[in-house]
TrEMBL record:
Listed NCBIfam families: MDH_euk_gproteo (TIGR01772)
UniProt record similarity statement: Belongs to the LDH/MDH superfamily. MDH type 1 family.
Protein known as: Malate dehydrogenase
Catalytic center residues: 201
InterPro entries hit by this protein: L-lactate/malate_DH, Lactate/malate_DH_C, Lactate/malate_DH_N, Lactate_DH/Glyco_Ohase_4_C, Malate_DH_AS, Malate_DH_type1, NAD(P)-bd_dom_sf
Amino acid sequence: MFRSVARSAAGKSLLRRGYATAVPERKVAVLGAAGGIGQPLALLMKLNPLVSQLALYDIANTPGVAADVSHINSRSEVAGYVGEEQLGKALEGCDVVIIPAGVPRKPGMTRDDLFNINAGIVKGLCSAIAKYCPNALVNMISNPVNSTVPIAAEVFKKAGTYDERKLFGVTTLDVVRAKTFYAGKAKVNVADVNVPVVGGHAGITILPLFSQATPKANLPEEDIKALTKRTQDGGTEVVEAKAGKGSATLSMAYAGAIFADACLKGLNGVPDVVECSFVQSTVTELPFFASKVRLGKNGVEEVLGLGPLSEYEKEGLESLKPELKSSIEKGIKFANQN
């Protein structure tokens, strides 16, 4: 189903970006829409002209968020859903489901500490996705992503709906941070910077490939090591700066919106859409791994290889594997035991 938008401001914007005069109807759901990430993410998705329906779901307070966002004069129609009894309606007909639901990280709390609470939340939401919109692209933000993505995969396998091309761990914030920090050190325009980030989405499992960064800056190795450490510790930096009163919500919402936009462009047939994401993979011996992924009408069209690595990056890759393997296995175990 298509809606002509050629005469509208949104339509003119889309035409400038190479779209036809009609844009597909796309429904996007945000699960956890009343939370610290969910609210700014809801705002950013409301501003996206590729979204025609925006479903906002949470266990409380969603009607107010939906009413607030719905007053914005952009294309999408907004509906708020609250409580488990309305989850199915929120999900029906979805093309993309974004999951920022869960408890936030607190001072001294590792991503692993979040595990039991957020793992249970993710399992319940994925069971509903399997039932109500099994063909949707699922964008997992809920931490720890290294474990919640394998949990989701197991839930979908048990339901008979698993498609490895349609499940993504959103690691875009690692890329956003790597770009920002690199641009500052290299003194280049951040809008021109690209840095692949591979591995996982926690601590040392985050491996930015600054040797492949563009534009090339030839930074000394001590700078590369410092940039790598800062990218890995970006979440802790924000938690500490907020003095225990919050975590990375605004930057995560921005990163989540960027990745969802890439998914929508892929679904709509825009060529050569490439983003880093934590997906089922054969790039390494691990069953899930973050690397560059080409997106298309079926979700993942191609998982791209790592490319040439520096010696420092090769060491980092080998160092991260045991921890990432453990996190993946923990997720699978949780899904199968609970």
